[in-house]
């Protein structure tokens, strides 16, 4: 063991690298500045690296953790622009068009982002350019540079060809051809470069030179409407947070009202000063056009959170967005009482869904099938309330007993039948849940064949009976399969029919 450094001594920093197995070899995946000064580089085998630098500190690569860290940084960058795209394994694109002035200009924004990430222990290389590829190219050899529109070619021409980030084979081929800088490659004809290295590399080169631009794919879709409030001093009290969220709701409704739209899905994002981001989502069954409704939905949602909103040292940004909107259809509300009833029902469903989740509030719709357990479909009430109001259910015949039980089991439960009338008669008694019931009245059978086109042609046949026992309890039972009157073959014994209870009438 090395002795601890004495007072006044400078602690020695040993080079560190992260290694990963590639092509059956352990290669350097990433490294720090001390390793670069020692002569190491990415892609160098670990054995060679140890020979060059015996004091090397080695860590195994964790791609899952790296991806998670990159996504966390992307969440933090959402405070600067909602258009953030990933550039794996360790890059990000930020589209700052139209929002740099909020932070004092492009230079100030670049310093804010780089400084904040640097204080959190990250080594940051950043640049601003009119095209994404040009900015990425500059980050490799000219960090901190800002390129004006039209100056892309001049900015990247002196850089080595490796800054383009092309395949190693292409980079090596360019160097063998004597093309060491991007300017050297740009001086050749496009057709010549394409014939030698492919059209994709030519497109990459053109985007780096500003002669074309490729779209970036934001990790989150851009909301239809977005409003936000930035705070010079972080806010942490519930009252101040609620007041600012209410003010944002008024701003959002005003913006949507200009185009006659209402919000169906709303998201409130809270950005903490330590970089953590919390997003709360609520949905509505009908387009929301009133700020007080938005306030109520978020209040219900925040109060029902199992993990309460923790401001930590405070929020420096609160953002409210409408990620899904619809055109508001004006209705006559003065004379139609049903409209008011539907509004109240929809508001009630929205409040309950905000507390317990939209998937837990359901309505039932009829299905066009004769299979009992498939005749009803449970769907989210917020999205199918209008369909449920117009659903046509089979009408009961007056004076006749119900054909279907009041309580239908999700899964039929097996019963024991010691003997029954064959070939298609009812049982004389059965045992269900350890209780034996003697049958005194029977109605049936009602034969229901399964949907053979969904059962690979081997669907069973059910005979349903409405029966009543000596205690007056009424059951809906069925026999799964048919009795076979012919003796079974010894090597292919027939499986006897099974009996189930499927529901209760009372």
Mind sketching the topology for me?
Elements: E1 16-22, E2 25-31, H1 33-37, H2 46-52, E3 57-60, H3 63-77, E4 84-87, E5 91-94, H4 106-119, H5 132-141, H6 152-156, H7 168-176, H8 182-186, H9 190-197, H10 199-208, E6 225-235, H11 238-257, E7 261-272, E8 277-288, H12 291-303, E9 315-327, H13 337-356, E10 362-366, E11 376-380, H14 381-389, E12 407-415, E13 429-432, E14 435-449, E15 461-469, E16 474-480, E17 498-504
Parallel strand pairs: 1-3
Antiparallel strand pairs: 1-2, 4-5, 6-9, 7-8, 7-9, 10-11, 12-17, 13-14, 14-15, 15-16, 16-17
Helix pairs in contact: 9-10, 11-12, 12-13
Shape: elongated
Rg on CA atoms, Å: 35 Å
The biggest sheet amounts to: 6 strands, antiparallel
Distance between the termini: 81 Å
| Contiguous runs where pLDDT drops below 50 for at least 5 residues | 486-493
Mean pLDDT: 86
Q: How many structural domains can be distinguished in the coordinates?
A: 4
**Which secondary-structure class do the elements indicate?**
alpha+beta
SS field, number of helical segments = 14
Fraction of residues in H or I helices: 25-40%
Query: Oligomerization state of this entry?
Result: single chain
GO molecular function: damaged DNA binding
Pfam families: IMS, IMS_C
InterPro entries: DNA/RNA_pol_sf, DNA_pol_Y-fam_little_finger, Rev_trsase/Diguanyl_cyclase, SulA_CellDiv_inhibitor, UmuC
Family: Belongs to the DNA polymerase type-Y family.
Describe the structure using short key phrases.
Dna Ligase, domain 1; single chain; 14 helices; 506 residues; 27% strand; 4-stranded antiparallel sheet; alpha+beta; 6-stranded antiparallel sheet
């Amino acid at each position: 063991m090395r002795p601890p450094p004495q007072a006044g001594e400078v602690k020695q920093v040993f080079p560190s690298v992260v290694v990963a197995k590639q092509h059956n070899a352990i290669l350097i995946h990433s490294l720090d500045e001390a390793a670069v000064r020692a002569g190491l580089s990415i892609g160098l085998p670990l054995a060679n690296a140890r020979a060059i630098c015996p004091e090397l500190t080695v860590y195994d690569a964790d791609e899952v953790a790296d991806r998670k860290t990159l996504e966390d940084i992307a969440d933090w960058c959402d405070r600067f622009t909602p258009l953030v795209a990933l550039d794996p394994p360790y890059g990000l694109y930020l589209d700052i068009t139209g929002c740099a002035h909020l932070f004092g200009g492009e230079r100030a924004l670049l310093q804010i982002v780089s400084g904040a990430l640097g204080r959190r222990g990250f080594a940051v290389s950043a640049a601003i350019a009119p095209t994404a590829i040009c900015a990425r190219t500059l980050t490799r050899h000219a960090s901190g540079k800002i390129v004006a529109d039209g100056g892309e070619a001049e900015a990247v021409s002196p850089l080595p060809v490796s800054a383009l980030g092309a395949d190693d084979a292409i980079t090596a081929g360019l160097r063998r051809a004597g093309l060491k800088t991007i300017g050297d490659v740009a001086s050749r004809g496009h057709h010549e470069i394409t014939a030698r290295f492919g059209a994709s590399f030519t497109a990459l080169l053109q985007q780096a030179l500003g002669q074309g631009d490729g779209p970036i794919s934001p990790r989150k879709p851009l909301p239809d409407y977005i409003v936000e409030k930035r705070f010079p001093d972080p806010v942490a009290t519930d009252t101040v947070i609620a007041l600012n969220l209410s003010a944002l709701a008024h701003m959002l409704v005003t913006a949507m009202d200009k185009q006659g739209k209402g919000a169906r899905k709303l998201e409130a994002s809270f950005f903490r000063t330590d970089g953590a981001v919390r997003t709360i989502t609520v949905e509505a069954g009908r387009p929301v056009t009133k700020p007080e409704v938005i306030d109520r939905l978020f209040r219900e949602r925040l109060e029902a959170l199992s993990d309460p909103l923790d401001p930590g040292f405070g929020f420096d940004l609160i953002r409210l967005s409408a990620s899904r909107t619809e055109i508001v259809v004006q209705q006559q509300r003065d004379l139609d009482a049903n409209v008011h009833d539907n509004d109240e029902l929809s508001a009630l469903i929205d409040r309950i869904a905000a507390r317990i989740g939209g998937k837990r509030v359901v309505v039932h719709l009829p299905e066009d099938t004769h299979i009992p357990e498939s005749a009803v479909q449970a769907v989210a009430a917020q999205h199918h309330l209008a369909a449920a109001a117009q659903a046509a259910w089979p009408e009961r015949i007056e004076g006749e007993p119900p054909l279907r039980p009041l309580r239908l089991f999700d899964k039929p439960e097996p019963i024991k039948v010691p003997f029954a009338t064959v070939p298609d008669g009812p049982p004389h008694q059965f045992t269900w849940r350890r209780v034996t019931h003697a049958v005194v009245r029977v109605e049936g059978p009602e034969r229901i064949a399964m949907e053979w086109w969904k059962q690979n042609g081997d669907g069973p046949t059910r005979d349903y009976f409405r029966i009543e026992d000596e205690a007056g309890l009424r059951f809906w039972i069925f026999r799964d399969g048919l009795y076979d009157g012919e003796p079974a073959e010894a090597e292919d014994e027939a499986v006897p029919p099974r009996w189930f209870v499927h529901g209760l009438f009372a």
